[in-house]
MYC binding protein
Amino acid sequence: MAHYRASESKREQFRRYLEKSGVLDTITSVLVALYEETEKPNNALDFIKLHLGASGSEPADAEALRLELADLQQKFNLLMEENKELKNRLMQYEPSPDNGAVE
């Protein structure tokens, strides 16, 4: 009987560990998503693997991609401003047809 209690205690500790680390919530949410699928996938294990990967931590290069995106957005904004400025300078030399230029 003592062996049973020790085993039960270890199980309870492991269950608390899984609950504390968020594993139970993650697995539950993936299983609920599978349950709620209107058309069940042919391979449930692939579905679970896909959704566990998506709900897990971000890829290692996610932060690098975020930084690159911010840098590219800044460059884009600078280029758009430069383009606007160059168009304005061009208008000084070549007025648009809408400004009454005779053809």
